[in-house]
Amino acid sequence: MPEFNWPEPGTTTLIGKRISRLDGPAKVTGAAKYAYDTKRPGMLYAKVLRSPHAHARIVSIDTSEAEKLPGVEAVYIVQEPNTEIHWEGDDIVAVAAVDEPTAEDAIRRIKVVYEKLPHLVREEDLSKVGDRAKPAADQVSGDPDKAFQDPDAVVIEGFYGTSVVTHCCLEAHGNVAEWDGDSLTVYPSTQAVERLGAQFAETLKIPATNVHTLMQYVGGGFGSKVAVDRWGIAVAKLAQKAGKPVKLMLERKPEQMVAGNRPSSYAKVKLAAKKDGTLTGWQSDSWSTGGMAGGGSPPLPYIWNFPHQRKRHTAVSVNAGSARAWRAPNHPQGCYITMSAIEDMAAKLGMDPLDLLIKNIAITGERSELYRKELLKAAELMEWKSRWHPRRDRSPGPVKQGLGLSIHTWGGRGHASDCRVAIHPDGSVEVSLCTQDLGTGTRTVVAIVAAETLGVPLETIKLNIGDNRLPRSGASGGSTTVGGVSASTRRAALLAREQLFAKVAPELGATPDQIESSGGQVHVKNDPKKGLYWKQATAKLGETPITAMGQNPGDGELISSGVGGVQMADVSVDTETGIVKVNKMVAIQDCGLIIDMKTAESQVHGAIIMGIGYSLFEERVMDQATGRMLNPNMEFYKLAGFADIPEIVVHMWLDPEQQKRGVIGLGEPPTVSPGAAIGNAVANAIGVRVPTLPLTPDKVLLALEKGGMA
Amino acid sequence: MKEKDKENTAKPKSGISRRKFLKGVGVGGGVLGSGILTGALIPEGSGAQQAAAKIYGPMATPIDLVVNGQKRSLKLEPRVTLLEALRDHLDLTGAKRVCDRTTCGACTVILDGSLVYSCSVLAIEANGKAIQTVEGLAGSNGLHPVQAAFVENDAQQCGFCTSGFVVAIKALLDKHPDPTPEEVRMGLGGNLCRCGTYVGMKKAVLQASRKGGRPAPRRLGGQPNA
């Protein structure tokens, strides 16, 4: 057995370098085909009639007029009469027709009678949610009463919160389904090509072997595309009924309403500290919603393990689309509430929050030394010590400037993954695993690991992904992909290489353990003259290719979990208009061993930009009177645009000690801190806390008015 | 300040007027309701403007589109948008349908030299006109400089907004080979990205501009299994 480890840092030709993503050319030329771009012979187009009510019972459904319409080939009732509907936009009836306009015409001819039921769609005021509140028991540790009653304690109270935001994937959810007898082929837009096959089989009650899922590109997921979905099954049913392939991609409106969102979070928080800044007591009364199921508690207090705590969380169920995992589930909410309260405590104590954090760093636990170093590095890159001012920018003029900071963590251990590496006698190399590339760079990472291990150029690697008939490699969620696929690919490539060395060693008059492969040659270690070119070496295989399977988990320490990061924000706030502008963000991020520096940095850039979006603009706006979402579109559900992007300084933590930990996921952690860092910078600029994200102009102006600074 | 630049900065940040999309929406709103395209909305020079009203549809109508230099003849209902014609009838799926109402720019194409949101232009409005899509940018020598710069600077992640941005930037650099930061802001202001690839795009614009020296287009890395 080979030794399963990573090459020593500094000895690699590909790992850790800046490599352009392999599918870049396909994406920039429009050649990349997504589920939305799929067209099958004779394909029909589906549309879905959706509930206009937030809470109702279906009394009757009449599809007869729709069925009579020429061009309509199948009608499928998704939810039968008597079913209770719990949110606006829920699927009622699906129709397949020769083209989209005909399917739309058919939808308009369907008559559904509803019995409306009382609804609740807003949860930010807990006193108005009535019996929709489901409080959990108090959790107490230490002696919080003593901490807050200590006569020398400094105590602050605050209210903080984050709104429901949607995933807003640019490629809507949906798929194409095509039957051949009792076998189903699905072309989905998903983060889980392998898992979806099993879900279709289970739901449709056909053997798992009869479902084939295929996907090469997905236009965003962010956690929302891991399930088959009710509409996915509807497409398969329509295709079965019509005997033709059917395609359904959600329109933007249902995409925003029902295809995923991040739970809200609100909390009344009380903090106690000693006069010297030592944090002692935490108390929080939090609530949140993730739709009908309510919302679980974010991790509170986030990272900072106060010695004395009392916390209570209340789940609130509302009649709105259900929450799904949203990039770093629960962390941005916990981070915002905790880091905002700590910043407010620093202001109360008259301390620089950087000093307060460093003073208390020990209570962050096992990564405290990493956080301390990262905070100092971030401070250097932000010039924090020379630029920070006590709360409220007192310079003249209406535009105020401020700095804020935050820290975050994430797990990111690689998921279970199988990878098959085949070395063919002609020298070509095939790497096969059923993973998917969400745009995170998975393709590129797998190819880099295989090419580095075999000592061949990247172009030698032929990569097969996105097909559930390949070795299983799990869903892409929780930043678990990069660790999983890197480890399985490394193990498979090492095992394949070992077999090749065994074949080639006699030729070179050496034993297999004296052979290495680099620069397109297989040669005796430290003696490139005693070697064969790659293709000469593989020709020794005769007619039989080498194949090897690698798995994760497996032997050797190739991956681990747990990262720490620090972010700082520099903002300007126009106190006359309430508009917040981010001037600069500094991000320090640890993520163990980095396979591709270029796409890794892009993950951090993207996470910060997404963070600016949810900090300043993004919010699902619900109307209690009608039960409807008011902004299920992209003009009023606002994403960050090019003009909103500040200078972003990304510093990957390449400490050798951290690199030795192997590969750890990166997609999620850097999206945790922006809300807190930006919110704290705004408070530092204007002298008052704007309690809830997004920090829209109306809220900024209200906070200024309440604070007597308007 | 040059006259051209004044005109540029006076336009709204959304890029809406730049894309002339109001025209598209106005036409779309009327036609989707009635299936009638009035004379005033017929392109100039078509000879039909003098007629009080020319009626198209509701049945499929012959339409000629000159797509990436190639004449393509189609028969489409008047309610079919240019985006649908390209994607569903010509299998040119680089332009994407995302917001479907002129906000996000994923459907951006060049119509007779002007950028348009093809989701809100009717195919009949484009009758006889030249359309350039992302598929028409790369030449026999490889990627267009904007495309090569996108790959080099990792200006794409999931890639769903990428076609729209590439076309918008190509048009920006055709007009302003050395764009000022303000021109770049305007030029990219009509498109949205969800993955947050704007940092790479900013570098790509600079690299593909005259100032950036326009490196020889080349394919980087291996071939995906597309």
Query: What's the arrangement of strands in the largest beta sheet of chain B?
Result: 4-3-7-5-6
CATH fourth-tier homologous superfamily of the largest domain in chain B: Beta-grasp domain
Span from first to last CA of chain A? 71 Å
Structural class of chain B: alpha+beta
Helical content band of chain A:
25-40%
The strands making up the biggest β-sheet of chain A line up spatially as 3-5-1-14-11-12-13
Q: Give the C-alpha Rg of chain B.
A: 18 Å
Task: Assign the CATH class of the largest domain in chain B.
Answer: Alpha Beta
Q: How many domains of chain B?
A: 2
Question: What does the average pLDDT of chain B come to?
Answer: 80
Overall morphology of chain A: flat
CATH hierarchy: architecture of the largest domain in chain B: Roll
Q: How would you characterize the overall build of this protein?
A:
The complex is a heterodimer of chains A (710) and B (226). Chain A is of the alpha+beta class and 710 residues long. Chain A has three domains: 35-118 and 168-258, Aldehyde Oxidoreductase, domain 4 (2-Layer Sandwich), CATH 3.30.365.10; 261-412 and 560-706, Aldehyde Oxidoreductase, domain 4; 414-552, Aldehyde oxidase/xanthine dehydrogenase, molybdopterin binding domain (Aldehyde Oxidoreductase, domain 4, 2-Layer Sandwich), CATH 3.30.365. Helices cover 27% and strands 26% of the residues of chain A. Chain A contains 18 helices and 32 strands. In chain A, the strands form eight sheets. In chain A, strands 3-5-1-14-11-12-13 form a seven-stranded mixed β-sheet. In chain A, strands 7, 8, 9, 16, 17, 18 and 32 form a seven-stranded mixed β-sheet that branches. In chain A, helix 12 links the parallel strand 21 and strand 22 (461-464). In chain A, helix 12 runs parallel beside helix 13 and helix 15 (597-616) crosses helix 17. The longest helix of chain A is centred in the last third of the chain and has 24 residues, at 481-504. Chain A starts with 23 loop residues before the first helix and ends with a helix. The relative contact order of chain A is 0.13. The model of chain A has no long low-confidence stretch (mean pLDDT 97). Chain B is an alpha+beta fold and 226 residues long. Chain B folds into two domains: 7-133, Roll (Ubiquitin-like (UB roll)); 145-208, [2Fe-2S]-binding domain (DNA polymerase, domain 1), CATH 1.10.150. Helix content of chain B is 31%, strand content 13%. Chain B contains seven helices and seven strands. In chain B, the strands form two sheets. A five-stranded mixed β-sheet of chain B has the order 4-3-7-5-6, sandwiched between helices. Chain B has a two-stranded antiparallel ribbon with strand order 1-2. In chain B, a hairpin with a 2-residue loop joins strand 5 (108-111) and strand 6 (114-117). The longest helix of chain B has 14 residues, at 21-34. Chain B is elongated and about 50 Å long. Chain B starts with a helix and ends in an 18-residue tail after the last helix. At the A-B interface, helix 1, helix 12, strand 22 and helix 15 of A face helix 3, helix 4, helix 5, helix 6 and helix 7 of B.
